[in-house]
Amino acid sequence: MGHWPRVVAWVVLSLVLGGSSCGEDGAAPPEVWREDVAPAFDYALYCDAAGRLTGRYSDVLLVHRSEHLERVYADAQRGDARARVLFGQLEAQVAAGGEKLAEQALGLVCPSLPTCTVRWAFLEELIPSHEAGGTRLRHVLARSFEREARRKGVENAVLNAALSVLLVGSVLEVAEAKAAGAEVRTLAGGVGRGLSLEDAAALEARFTEAEALESGARLPAQLEALARYRPSVHQPPSGVSVTESRWVDYVAYWERRYEELSGARQWPPDAPPVKPPLKWDGYNAFRGRFQEALAFQGSVARVLRQDAGLARGQRHWLRGLEQPLVMENVGLAHEGRVSLTYVDQFVVDEASLRPGQTPSVHSFSNKKRDFKSMSEDVIDAHLAADAREALTKYGGTVEVRRPGHPLFGRKVNVSRVHLVYDGAEMAPGLKVKLIRKAEDLNVELHFHAPQ
User: Could you tell me if residue 286 is inside a domain?
Assistant: First the structure.
């Protein structure tokens, strides 16, 4: 879909904040601030007489306690030496957090992950104040994040979302956020293929749907019992490295699911019921299959674009289309549904967009299935279920919700629904049978063997 960065905001920020003052490198658990009841303000809660931070998690608690934070910031603005030293340390640590956040979010393999967009819910908890002091810290974080993004020369949905939430979500001008984003986009031009916001949303939706159907073992749903299994990025299972990217993703996934179960995060009204997080082994296996499915989708998209580039009479997949435009992860709205569905590939014949003509639109649903160990009856059942799903999600009358698409905001009737299976190691005779059966199900079936 991630973003969802590769580590949630609280992991990065509390590592920097909580670790720097107490000499430990463990992240401050969310309960440190979630369960906190602020006492009467006193500088001694946070620092010594010179303003130097003291006490475990004192900085985390200070930025979370809005009234205390604003008191220190106001005193610093008035010239109080102790307050200036104290707030200056917070600024330095938050700036370091911004660099680490950009490092994690922009520097690894975001284009293939569903957890690429930044999970800012924890940031809202950790720095809840939108007054002058909180705004200052957000500004410092945003500028630090942006500088690191510039250095890397990367643009993706994480950066756009970060600047939007950090700047527009505060008292800073909307124009500043837009200008900052535009500047980074210019510097990043032509470097990599970052996730657009729409691609990130599509991956997120697909991940959520697939995870809900996963049959692997799960942790307890009751919050008190679940909390006993809270994972730490610094304490992976035996045989897993602290730097293992999938373990970091698992920690982010676990925390998000905890939020959803607790009601702290809104769950889409027509989404599958919220389930407790998968156990690590099940999540690891699931993520492997999910990555394979994403790779298969990308391979199908490349074949479709190659087919679109052929002369009209030479096309196999896109027969009859004059000027096919292939786009991935196009959001489609359906009458009576709240959430969008995201079609793997959406093809419109641009020649059919001329005035007075009815748009010719084709949708493609990709399914990477291992048919080798299945009987023909089981394969037929999968075909029937996959065809129904494709027609329901990607067929009929849909409203195109992908910004930048030539049909954006228009309702159109999907001309043809296609289903694409992984055809590796499948007997030619079985392929022919399934293609004929698919015709009876009102879908056009294709087979693709990734190279």
Answer: no
